Amino acid sequence: xxxxxxxxxxxxxxxxxxxxxxxxxxxPAQAMAGPRTKTIRILGICCSPRKAKTTAASxxxxxxxxxxxxxxxxxxxxxxGMNIDGSLAAGLPPAPGQKDDxxxxxxxxxxxxxxxxxxxxxxxxxxxxxxxKAFLDRCIAFRKSNFALSNKVxxxxxxxxxxxxxxxxxxxxxxxxxxxxEMIIVGDARPGARIGATVWNDGKGDVTRDxxxxxxxxxxxxxxxxxxxxxxxxxx
Length: 236
What we know:
By secondary structure, the chain is α/β, with parallel strands linked by helices. It has one domain (7-234): Rossmann fold. 42% of the residues lie in helices and 16% in strands. It is built from seven helices and six strands; from the N terminus they run αβαβαβααβαββα. The longest helix is centred in the N-terminal third of the chain and has 27 residues, at 7-33. It is globular. It starts with 6 loop residues before the first helix and ends with a helix.
């Protein structure tokens, strides 16, 4: 017997269910809160499989630099240790008993207070980590529902094992996925004005030694914050 349960229909139903559930959970709180406050939040999403290592440290530099206004809150989210199965984005049902941590990220990302997101990933063979790709693939749920990431500001940081170790290629690859979410992509701020933050891990475990990389990280954090504030002010 022929079935019409196609990949697109599966993702339409699954994605809408996840995102709609998160929206419904936050709706009462939003209604009680009344008019939107001036506070906005910027998230750093660390896509390294190693927790609290060089990518997380670099993102923390970004987030600290993003505190350009008292109304900005920042939060670092590390995906290390989370179960995020990218194959579910292809329309495959989860295995029986399979743990899935992505829905709780949907709640975080869908929060109207989130105005900016900075994705950080190590460079593996000239591209993002599999964890980063799985996360971005699962974000198809937003495209199948309410485009909750639309008009949020996005920046990308990449950490490579060499000064020119594929960081820019990796940044562009992540940016391509974020553009599909209707996000507003920014690079690091002047005077450099490059495509993102490019950090070098020299193998000694302390990326703050990379003066050039830390400058791009601080500039990126500041740029994301500045653009997010402009958009928030325009929306009042």
